[in-house]
Amino acid sequence: MKRIAGIFLIALVGGVVSLGLYKTFEGNRHVFSQRPDGIPIRPVNYNPSAAFNQPDFEAAAAISIHAVVHIKSEFQKKSLVYDDFFEFFNFGGRPQPKEYISPYSAMGSGVIVSPDGYIVTNNHVVQDATSITITLNDKRVYQASVVGTDPSTDLALIRIDEKELPFLTYGNSDEVKIGEWVLAVGNPFNLTSTVTAGIVSAKARNINILGSQGAIESFIQTDAAINPGNSGGALVNTRGELIGINAAIASGTGYYTGYSFAIPVNIVRKVVGDFMKFGKIQRAFLGVYYREIDDQFAKDKGFTDLRGVYLDDVTEGGPAEKAGLKKGDVIISIDSTPINGKSELMEVIGQKNPGDKVTVKVHREGKEFDLPLTMASEDSKQTSLKDDKLIIQGATFQELTEKEKTSLNLDFGFKIIRLDEGKLKNSGIRAGFIVLAVDRQAIRTMSDLREALANRSGGVLIEGIYPNGLRAYYGIGL
């Protein structure tokens, strides 16, 4: 018996010691690993509960779903622009043809941004709509009116007649970090408010979907799932702050396949504020022609730094020239915001108002220095060149010389000597085209040209000739 008791006592003591050692090491457990060459890697503290320490989306979702609305827009004709935002990337295969029932309709989402009924959404959700019906998350239904639309950012502000509505507060999209958790809130497939989660995959994405002159594309890219119907919905952070308006997906089928894109809220805030205060967009103008710097271009120019955008030219009398910027300069930052490409530059400019004073950091001949610059109104672009040139809709026009008139047997005409991104270029017009008439009216003077194409809305018919004698006609929506 004594022997059995002794064995039992030894086993008991051993168990207690083992348990104590386990508890001691479990609280400070380390994970050791080593590189392929055998050198040990510094141990990392291991916390078994860390794997379950995931972000909590409940509060952000609870705030957001009540401030996101369902939008039904009706049209007299099919809205092709709506479809484009869900089919702009072809990842293999083409979308199947859709069948439409008249009157045509589109479903989307919107975000309430003030308690008195202002709702921001995508322009392509409400563009040319004859009727806009809003359904709140609590099932109340309203008819909305359009306050303003801005195709260059794909944003629109609409309003319903109601007070004390739940709304989202603005975050700061400049502070959004890659890898940050976000929620997408909207109404996909005509469902009620739906929440999906993902991370910020990239910032300042230019996907060339807007296509209009001066289009501002600097999307926040996420892997939060959105689908048709999510357009105009909210992208929020884990605090429930609005950081973007969902606009498009990368898809060859029209449905979510991995990436979605949202308009940064700092641009949204600017557009909404302008519509509320002025009734139209107050767009700022820098006055530069530029290109992005890639590795080959840097080697050609002898640059050792790939930062910034290179200035091909500056418009005469524009804000950049007045501030002292020159052809060949490299803009590195504006107001301490790094500028590494078109998207960053357009995003910064898109947040500014005419008259705003900014500081532009420039790299010139191996030196960096700051230049103070005052932004001008975009309207000044039309007369920012010499008297014999005119910029309209992304095209630079110049009156034909007497020699050109004689060789082409023309009495008048205005040749496109430079063609940048804009509606004229998107229509198929090429540099060198000579405009002779717009809507069957002869264009004999600069004033005729400005009146025919500048500050116009709707469609126009442009007639003209190329230097090789080929006559051409272009129908363009302005």
3D architecture notes:
This protein is α+β, with helices and mostly antiparallel strands. It has 4 domains: 49 residues, no CATH class; 228 residues, Thrombin, subunit H; 96 residues, PDZ domain (Pdz3 Domain, Roll); 90 residues, PDZ domain (Pdz3 Domain, Roll). It contains 11 helices and 30 strands. The longest helix has 26 residues.
Which short descriptors sum up this protein?
seven-stranded antiparallel β-sheet; 4 domains; 30 strands; Thrombin, subunit H; alpha+beta; 11 helices; Pdz3 Domain; 478 residues; 35% strand
List the helices and strands and how they pair.
Blueprint: H1 2-27, E1 30-34, E2 40-45, H2 58-65, E3 68-75, H3 80-84, E4 104-112, E5 118-122, H4 123-126, E6 131-135, E7 141-143, E8 145-150, E9 155-159, E10 181-186, E11 194-205, E12 219-222, E13 234-236, E14 242-250, E15 259-264, H5 265-278, E16 284-285, E17 288-292, H6 295-301, E18 309-314, H7 319-323, E19 330-334, E20 337-338, H8 342-350, E21 357-364, E22 367-374, E23 376-377, E24 389-392, E25 395-399, H9 402-408, E26 414-419, H10 423-426, E27 434-438, E28 441-442, H11 446-453, E29 459-465, E30 471-477
Antiparallel strand pairs: 1-2, 3-4, 3-6, 4-5, 5-9, 6-7, 8-9, 10-11, 10-13, 11-12, 12-15, 13-14, 14-15, 16-23, 17-18, 18-19, 19-20, 19-21, 21-22, 24-25, 25-26, 26-27, 27-28, 27-29, 29-30
